């Protein structure tokens, strides 16, 4: 046990003494270690490398100097550099060399420093010869965990962080599942789930959990709670469970109203879902296809506290079974699962999908948008609503292939995701009606005016005539671009959103309530001060239920009565559809304008809320939008929008005065406030004279204010 063997570093002839017992333990551990796939940043990982720490990994700078002291003579060589790169020198110069070249650029981990190494530990490219090969040798780090050699310091830091996220913090590379002691317990909405330390990186973990998606989970829960109030019990599916937190929240709060199925194709995720079910005192019913047997954990009874856990591909489980509520939340786009989702979803059921491929939907990777969604888009001021309509268009086409139509209940596009919730209407007629709402958009690239292309298949000689602006006549070349195909219908259902708001208040979902209030105002195209939450019984049950073209039974349920025949149901559907067409004009206007995008140079804009009231007084419908905090949703054309904005904007040099209308020559006023031509000329002369005197007075009496009134 006391024997010590010497290992000689070839490039420096430095003897490093290592206990024999440690070498034997290292060799034994190396034999039991399983091979792994090579990292993209790793240049060389030697299988027979000694499993002890490399000499470049030390706790203190003095330890490196001790390695140099092992050599005899007054001049000491650097233990981490070849003799060709750094010749032996005196101790004070060696200390300065080790400190500046190796220690200062080291990577720290758990008290150890992984210093930069210049030894020939990795192969040199064969096309480098002579001085080039000498200059390329070295300049690498040795990983303390897996003994990999990595060139760049930033790559080394990322490499170590990946080990930490996987729970691999020992000096061995372990591919086994992380121990339970490394789990973290996260609580959200009275639901506890255990996750791995790397739960926020979906590509590297089996237990992906993103705390920033809490609002998304609350919105989906509210939509499911509304559906559960229409019919009990309903079968709902969380197709991509990960930790299972969403399905656990459904089962824990809605109880007997829902039968929850959580699916995931990863074995580790399924194991974690089962553990999280037990953590929340839920029974688990296993239905794993590979085992061809059902196993019930608990007392074997199916009750409100039982969750079914399946391990299969999401497309397979949706092909095999029918559900009333399906939620899709894959990593990236969800278009690959739409056909399976609409294949067996029940009539009047709900499909919700969360898309996190933000780069393609927000027009940062337009070629990916064309490949995934078959849609051409560009970056516009209303790009978030454009993303929502792109997703809904893909959903509409997938539903139409299964002879189903959709009604959009909710469409939300925020920083991290795009959420779309639709109700399924079975039959070729609703499918045709929905497919007709997928149209192209004509977008002017100069003023960003936009209009949906008219219905019909006939070609027009001048498509620019459909745009309200005259940019094509005043600007050279082609000024507009054709975007789409996009969904041209409504993005919200007011009745359904109001019921979602009531459910959010009932279950205390504080984060979802402000957004739902904004969505209700946006769907009605009204301001928040006119918002009111009245009793749902006072409204028409059908309109409040949030289903267009769906008969309502005497009890208030949206589902057809058992005694009603198929013919009566179809007649009710036709009659309701006619009433909905008559009320089509009450839909919220498509798209919105950003007030900063259309601000007038040299003028202070009015406050946003005041500007909304000015537009409303001018006779236009107006509301704020959740897509853009400075966006205004209105049915006013862009020219009228700019006219009102110009009217109530003040010059920067009188920014301190009270806001009010400023009549400018040559500007078109709105409504009854349009002055006569003579009055305009008189006002023009007075305004020019007053402005000239005010400018000179301001220049010599006070500094020029540069702040914005907004």
TrEMBL record:
Q: Name one GO cellular component term.
A: nucleolus
Per the record, the domain of life is Eukaryota
Q: Where is the C2H2-type domain?
A: 143-163
Annotated gene:
Trmt1l
Query: Family per UniProt?
Result: Belongs to the class I-like SAM-binding methyltransferase superfamily. Trm1 family.
Segments crossing the lipid bilayer: none
Native source species: Tychaedon coryphoeus (Karoo scrub-robin)
The record's section on SUPFAM superfamilies has:
S-adenosyl-L-methionine-dependent methyltransferases
Q: What is the protein name for this chain?
A: tRNA (guanine(27)-N(2))-dimethyltransferase
**Biased segments, Basic and acidic residues type:** 20-39
């Amino acid at each position: 046990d006391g024997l010590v063997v010497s290992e000689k570093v070839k490039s420096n002839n430095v003897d490093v003494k290592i206990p024999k017992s440690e070498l034997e333990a290292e060799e034994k551990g190396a034999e039991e270690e399983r091979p792994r796939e090579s990292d993209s940043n790793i240049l060389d990982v030697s299988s027979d490398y000694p499993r002890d720490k490399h000499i470049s990994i030390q706790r203190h700078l003095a330890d490196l100097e001790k390695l140099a002291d092992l050599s005899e003579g007054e001049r000491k060589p650097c233990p981490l550099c070849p003799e060709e790169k750094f010749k032996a020198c005196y101790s004070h110069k060696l200390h300065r060399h080790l400190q500046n070249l190796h220690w200062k650029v080291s990577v720290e981990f758990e008290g150890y420093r992984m210093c930069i190494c210049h030894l020939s530990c990795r192969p040199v490219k064969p096309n480098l010869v002579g001085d080039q090969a000498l200059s390329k040798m070295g300049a690498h780090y040795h990983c303390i965990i897996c003994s990999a050699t990595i060139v760049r310091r930033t790559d080394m830091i990322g490499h170590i962080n990946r080990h930490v996220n996987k729970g691999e913090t020992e000096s061995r590379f372990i591919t086994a599942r992380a121990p339970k002691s490394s789990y973290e317990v996260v609580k959200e909405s009275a639901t506890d789930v255990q996750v791995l330390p790397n739960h926020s990186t979906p590509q590297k973990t089996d237990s992906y959990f993103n705390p920033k998606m809490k609002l998304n989970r609350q919105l989906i829960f509210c939509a499911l709670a509304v559906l559960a109030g229409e019919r009990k019990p309903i079968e709902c599916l969380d197709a991509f469970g990960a930790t299972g937190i969403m399905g656990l929240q459904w089962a824990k709060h809605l109880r007997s109203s829902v039968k929850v199925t959580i699916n995931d194709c990863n074995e580790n995720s399924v194991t974690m879902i089962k553990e999280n079910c037990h953590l929340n005192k839920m029974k688990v019913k296993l239905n794993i296809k590979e085992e061809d047997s059902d196993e019930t954990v608990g007392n074997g009874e199916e009750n409100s506290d039982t969750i079914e856990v399946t391990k299969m591909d999401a497309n397979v489980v949706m092909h095999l079974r029918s559900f009333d509520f399906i939620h899709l939340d894959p990593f990236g786009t969800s278009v690959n699962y739409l056909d399976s989702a609409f294949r067996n979803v029940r009539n009047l059921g709900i499909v919700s999908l969360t898309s996190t491929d933000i780069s393609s939907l927000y027009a940062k990777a337009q070629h990916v948008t064309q490949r995934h969604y078959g849609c051409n888009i560009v970056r516009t001021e209303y790009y978030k609503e454009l993303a929502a309509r792109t997703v809904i268009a893909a959903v509409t086409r997938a539903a139409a292939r299964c002879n189903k139509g959709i009604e959009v209940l909710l469409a939300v596009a925020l920083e991290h995701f795009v959420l779309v919730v639709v109700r399924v209407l079975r039959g070729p007629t609703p499918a045709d009606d929905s497919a007709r709402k997928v149209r192209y958009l004509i977008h002017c690239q100069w003023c960003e005016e936009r209009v949906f292309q008219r219905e019909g298949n006939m070609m027009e000689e001048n498509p620019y005539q459909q745009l309200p602006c005259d940019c094509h006549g005043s600007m050279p070349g082609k000024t507009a671009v054709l975007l789409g195909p996009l969904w041209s219908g409504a993005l919200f259902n007011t009745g359904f959103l109001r019921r979602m708001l009531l459910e959010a208040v009932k279950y205390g979902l504080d984060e979802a309530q402000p957004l739902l209030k904004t969505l209700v105002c946006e769907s009605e195209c009204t301001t928040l001060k006119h918002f009111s939450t009245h009793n749902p019984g006072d409204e028409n049950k059908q309109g409040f239920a949030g289903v267009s073209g769906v008969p309502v039974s005497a009890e208030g349920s949206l589902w057809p009565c058992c005694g009603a025949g198929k013919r009566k149901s179809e007649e009710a559907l036709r009659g309701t559809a006619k009433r909905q067409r008559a009320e089509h004009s009450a839909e919220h206007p498509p798209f919105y304008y950003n007030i900063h995008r259309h601000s007038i140079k040299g003028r202070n804009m009015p406050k946003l809320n005041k500007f909304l009231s000015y537009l409303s007084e001018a006779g236009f419908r107006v509301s704020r939008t959740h897509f853009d905090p400075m966006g205004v949703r209105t049915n006013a054309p862009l020219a009228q929008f700019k006219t009102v904005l110009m009217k109530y904007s003040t010059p920067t040099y009188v920014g301190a005065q009270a806001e009010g209308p400023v009549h400018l020559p040559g500007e078109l006023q709105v409504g009854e406030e349009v002055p006569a031509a003579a009055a305009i000329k008189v006002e023009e002369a007075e305004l020019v004279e007053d402005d000239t005197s005010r400018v000179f007075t301001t220049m010599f009496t006070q500094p020029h204010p540069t702040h914005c009134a907004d």
